[in-house]
Amino acid sequence: MTDTLIIRRPDDWHLHLRDGAMLEAVLPETARHFARAIVMPNLVPPVVTGADAAAYRDRILKALPEGGTFEPLMTLYLTEDTDPEDVATAAASGLVRAVKLYPAGATTNSQSGVRDFRKVIPVLEKMAEIGLPLCTHGEVTTPEVDIFDREAVFIDTVLDPLRKEIPELRVVMEHITTSDAVDYIRAAQANLAATITTHHLVINRNHILVGGIKPHYYCLPVAKRATHQQALRKAATSGDARFFLGTDSAPHVDPAKECGCGCAGCFTATNTMAILAHVFEEEGALDRLESFTSLHGPAYYRLPVNEETLTLVRGPKDYPAKILGKDGPVTVFDPGFVPAWHVAD
Ligand SMILES: NC(=O)N[C@@H](CC(=O)O)C(=O)O
Ligand SMILES: [Zn+2]
Ligand SMILES: [Zn+2]
Known about the structure:
The chain is an alpha/beta fold. The chain has twelve helices and 13 strands.
């Protein structure tokens, strides 16, 4: 039995770092294990222009612990007023690595997102031309559509027509939660990949609702039934290069989650690598952990893989139950088991 696993240093292809005191509190949790992360732009106000992204990047670098080498990969928040030329300039300089599509109202801070998809076609055409990926929060917001169906309906009514209209557009379906998404990605000829979160490999909707409501398991897209969870586990551990890690680690202070209308997001930065090693071992795929966390993402984003390594060691190790920032406590995701692995110091 292997007791030590050395992998190339992982990257997180979907991360929320927030701003201000929360940024200071959570950034070390990611920077400890991850070399780079695609940083989500859903701040208030959102990161819309190249100038916004440059300023946010500076704030992240300033918040880094002394001697930290973490590299934030910036994204722009797509609005109906986004200027294709600004996007192209920000991409050409290497500042921006993707543009994020939030259907208006789909998730946390998505009010400035897209309502009329016709309005963003010129930006998407420019992105297709320059090869800049579009990351999607893939859920429709139609009130009549059941919340558990919103990802599948998004694929059929928004994503598939869009990809047929602009086949050269390179898309990353973020935080997929359904076997429908897994099947759709597997069937694609080109220009489509997906991130999978740590928590969606560990929980299904029973974990949220059975035995009392668990606000810290509530995220968007909401976890689906166990058959979907199984499909995600198979996809993540399959070795298929179109699936890679995006933790969607999304900190909210406890009072904002443990209340009458709790907000969506699981905070997994602290223990993601230990949980993933545990899950991959359960799936008999420990030898594929590195490709999921450290190889497939750079390949899709056309970036070099990391030269540094991360060492995982068999055996449990305590991690904090909460991260205590100046804004208040943030509960670390509880996988419901003690991970059989930990990251070496
Ligand atoms: N995933 C979540 O449940 N929440 C994210 C937003 C998002 O990624 O959709 C957040 O910003 O809190
Ligand atoms: Zn999202
Ligand atoms: Zn997210």
